[in-house]
Amino acid sequence: MNAATIATDPAPTQRYRILRPDSIYVQWSRALAKRSATMPEPEVAPPLSPSPTEGASGWPSPAVILRHVAGEYGLSAEGLQGRKRDPYTVEGKRMAIHLLAASGLGPTAIGRVMHLDHSTILHHLRHVTLDPAQRRLVADLERELHYLAASTTRGA
Structural domain of residue 90, as residue ranges? Predict the structure, then answer.
């Protein structure tokens, strides 16, 4: 193409956007629209939530553990399960992850409870070390949770 042809060519960028009615793309999009109009809506599974009776022997359920840790940090259980990453919330999540692991839950189950990927849980358990003050707090929370589980099973 020479300069004269380019200058007389009407809107060279527009020629690629115009679709003929018999083009494959137009036929495909019409077929897809017709098919999706006749297809029923897919069923959506309910979100996974911890069962109030779920938990290893001697431990309360994961929901109770989350509420207890959230109360210790002045957060809500939903706040621990949320996407916030400020240092205070992350420390609460870390405590909850360590306590849920100590209760006997695996990384996949902890991930479901915390709304995190299981690889994130594995990272916290393998690579995030707790300082001595945090270890003492985990031990204190474990004692409180064992006492809570024992008092609820005796009362039932």
Answer: 62-155
